[in-house]
Amino acid sequence: MSRAEDWLRQKIGDAAEYAEVQIAHNYRFKCPACQYDWSAWRGPSIVFVSLSFVTDQCPNCQKKRVPACLVDAD
């Protein structure tokens, strides 16, 4: 394997490692209709100004656009 290939593999690995760390957060949701709470990993598609922009569908009653109420630090 050449030095260029080694260098390229290292850079790709570094980029993948960086992306894995920054891709998703564990958001907590609580449905206002049925009070069911759950967590879900969501990757941001835009820069979120507040948690109200992160929404999910309730797996219990199927209510749409339930806003996130907390971001787990893990």
Overall description:
There is one protein chain. With 74 residues, this protein is of the alpha+beta class. It has a domain at 24-74. Helix content is 27%, strand content 28%. The chain contains one helix and four strands, in the order H-E-E-E-E. A four-stranded antiparallel sheet has the order 2-1-4-3, with no helix packed on it. The longest helix is centred in the N-terminal third of the chain and has 20 residues, at 3-22. The model has no long low-confidence stretch (mean pLDDT 75).
Largest β sheet strand count, sense and barrel closure: 4 strands, antiparallel
**Helices and strands, in N-to-C order?**
HEEEE
- Strand order, main sheet: write it out: 2-1-4-3
Taking the alpha carbons of the first and last residues, their distance comes to: 39 Å
Shape: rod-shaped
Helix/strand structural class: alpha+beta
Strand content: 25-35%
Total E-strand runs: 4
Number of helices: 1
Helix content: 25-40%
Q: What would you report as the Rg, rounded to the nearest angstrom?
A: 18 Å
Q: What is the mean predicted local confidence, pLDDT?
A: 75
Low-confidence stretches: none
